[in-house]
């Protein structure tokens, strides 16, 4: 009986340690607020993100300019807007023109509700992001579309 009560005490102690460690790690979460330096109309929307092993997060922001009558095509501002959120809470804003074909700035919604955005961002090594987009020799013929990419660093410099 004494062994069993010691075993129960050990199990109870381990359970309390686990519960305490989980609640103390969750209690570090909080609210994050950032006020845009260049406010634009309409309000920006968080659209996509990439994250890095050190805790840095890069958000892609879009601004809707027009929505088709059927609602299946959304035209966005022709600007790559990124917000880099560092682990210490500071934010860097990048707004960069990519000089790419206009169809890349259209988000279409398929009949089954899936958004198709020609532009995507992918986290690479620290300080760099890959921006994927498309080039077409004939924008009316989807078979001429080619996938392209550019690297942008966290300072707004573009690389081919």
From TrEMBL:
Key words, A-Z: Signal
Superkingdom as given in the UniProt entry: Eukaryota
Signal sequence residues: 1-28
Keyword Signal on entry: yes
The protein's name: Fucose-specific lectin
Lineage summary: Eukaryota, Fungi, Fungi incertae sedis, Mucoromycota, Glomeromycotina
